[in-house]
Amino acid sequence: MGFYKNLSIRQKQIVWAWAFLALPVVFYVVIRFYPTGNAVLISFQDWNLLGDRTWAGAENYLKLWHDPVFWKVFRNTFAYLIIGTPVSLVISFVIAYHLDKLRFMHGFLRMLYFLPFMTSAVAMAWVWRWFYQPVPIGLFNNFLAAVGIPQIEFLRSTTNALPAILAPAVWAGLGFQVIIFMAGLRAIPKSYYEAARIDGVPWWTVLFEITIPLLKPTIVFIVVFSSIGFLRIFDHVFNMTTNDPGGPLNSTKPLVLMIYQSAFTDFDMGYAAAQTVVLFLILLLVSLLQLRILRDR
Amino acid sequence: MTATDIRASSETLLTVEAPKKAANMGQVVRWLILFLGGIVMIMPIVYMLSTSLKWPHEVYNVNLWPKEPTIENYTFVLEDGRFYGWMINSTVIALITTASNLFFDSLVGYTLCKFRFPGRYIVFIAILSTLMIPTEMLVIPWYLMSQQFGWLDSYWGIMFPGLMTAFGTFLMKQFFETVPDDFIEAARIDGLNELQIWWTVAMPLVRPALAALAIFVFLGNWTAFIWPLIVTNSVEMYTLPVGLSSFGDEADVQWELIMTGAAISTIPTLVFFLVFQRFIIRGVVMAGLKG
Question: Which residue range forms the structural domain that includes residue A135?
Fold first, then answer.
């Protein structure tokens, strides 16, 4: 250790820092960076796991461009985003806004809303799947039958299945968003509200001129966070449609499920990798776009 | 004070009282609506639990409380032992991954926060950039890697991608900013080496952040689905969500059994939440806002 003793304090720090970072740096290179590069590389190759990896150029991307299933999947993925994000944002804001004004049994109410966040998506997907079954099995249709409303085909209809699958995903995420919104609401200085009250400003003006503008950082966070979640939806879709994943007729299939099937059902690794690159680009573009739009205003 | 003055002040009190009562009514209505909304929120969980206690012939009945509650479904589902195995797998994997994240994420976060060394900025940016890469992009290369090294169908194979996370690293880095440099300097003068300073001086000061990180990592791994689904082949190696998914398919229309399986995989986290509620909500806020 004579060598170490001769080092200056600054040099010792450098040695320590790199000693601490050595293993993590290896981890990030081998488990994050190398696979990222590898995914991009495979997307330009043709490979079925067993045979040779052959160079395919942009073939996988061209195939994707001409694949009608991909465009269907593309629309579905954005449907999850475009319905899911605003709906969950508005519901969770309304709940948080009112919950914030209550003191009586506040913790208990908060618990009721937060509890679904602690469940596993797979377990709840199966619970909701049961709710959606036709009579005499499904809960929802039994309720409808009891009040004499015609049956609704939830998971078997090409138009209803997507929102039906989205519902438990929105439901499970609400609690988290409510908690984040409430923290945001707490952070707004009380003096603004007091000034508004003294001036006799009506509540909707307070809401739109004080509360919402000051909540903007919270709103940006929730929008970006939940959008990424909806674009990557998989667990709910897979488990609610196991007999025909992404069905009926691909009407609920999101991009991640298409990736899963291309890679681990069809073993078309190059094609699946090209889809993951597309997913990456979609996530990147959507996040950047949202940050841009929401920050500017 | 004359009698009229008293009358007058009591009258003003009354007029002040009236809108206050209206406000109170508003609060009551608000409370009731939020309460009903909250009940609706937990209905799926309640129905899952109630159905898991019903006999098959009663499943199609929408009543909340089973007429003849039974734990028969639980004994039946647990009988063949698969659920025990899956629960052990999930617990072991979630615990090891959590411990690894607590150790490495805080070590890296601390190093990036408190040390000045060449390459610091590059390491920082490199780890930050991995946040933008979706897991789904990595599963194919991870699968190939696992296949090559024989990691398929093993605990290590399920765990290795999540042993460290950029999210946890930045969360910890944020919190180490609150640890005064003077403390670290004082410990250095006392002759502690850097590892001791990190472990005995800095770590105890960020305990709330460690708790928040632990909750997130544990819950994330307990409910993780897509990667365990890909990397496991044999029933014995399934985690709880993967096992439940295959069990659901197998049980087909026996919904009381599926609800029992779902309940078995949900009850541990629900109990955990009910016990540590305050703590968890604070942790979620901390992680959500700082991360």
Answer: 68-296
